[in-house]
Amino acid sequence: MERSRINRVMAEAAEMIAKSGFHLPPFAHWSPEEFRARATPAIREARLGWDITDYGQGDFDRLGLFLFTLRNGRLADLQAGRGMVYAEKLLISQENQISPMHTHVIKTEDIINRDGATLAIRLCGSDEQGRMDRNAPVRVDCDGVPREVAPGGILRLGPGESVTLRPGDWHEFWAEGGPVLIGEVSTVNDDLTDNIFAAPIGRFARVHEDEPPRHLLVSDYAADLT
């Protein structure tokens, strides 16, 4: 993705988030220079902040997602069963913009339609080896109510509705009828190793630096802050 496009997506996302009544934390507004000077190890190591991806495919309108990681615990705490074992994100899915089929090995997550149009989620189960099984139904909880979804079936969530997805629940999602502001509340999040995609794609965008960044992306941290 071109950095200029990433900058525009950031500005548009910040506007939608504000109109929905949410407020991003102070570090969200830091310039790259401020971030370099002020970001603590807790922010950098937890990879808190801006995250915009086209999954390395170069077609953000068709295959892409906006994310902002608000808080994130430590895998060591999760393994110990105490401490900061949770994470929270805001996401924005544009109309018909797909976040491609994937699952997680560790993370259980609640996906919440916070505001906007309809969130559509296609679900598939797993076989005994954890591979996607297009013939397996998926059993999920929607706001505490058990639901069984047919193999490859689509679950649609209106504003305020949510679904709990567990490891092995394969899912892809997109917005219908307009953009959707999505909440994600989960166990500890590791985007470097805990995203298993059905297709051979990457998690992060390859960035073409055609203008200076508005804010740093989480994928900039390793190169920019070392």
- What's the number of helices? 5
Count of beta strands: 12
> How would the global form be characterised?
globular
Query: Approximately how much helix is present in the residues?
Result: 10-25%
GO molecular function, one term: D-lyxose ketol-isomerase activity
Cofactor: Mn(2+)
EC number: 5.3.1.15
Organism: Paracoccus halophilus
Kindly describe this structure.
- This protein is α+β, with helices and mostly antiparallel strands and 226 residues long.
- The protein has one domain: Jelly Rolls, CATH 2.60.120.10.
- 17% of the residues lie in helices and 37% in strands.
- Strands 1, 2, 3, 4, 5, 6, 9, 10, 11 and 12 form a ten-stranded antiparallel sheet that branches.
- The chain is globular, with a radius of gyration of 17 Å.
- The two termini are 23 Å apart.
- 31% of the residues are buried.
- The mean pLDDT is 95.
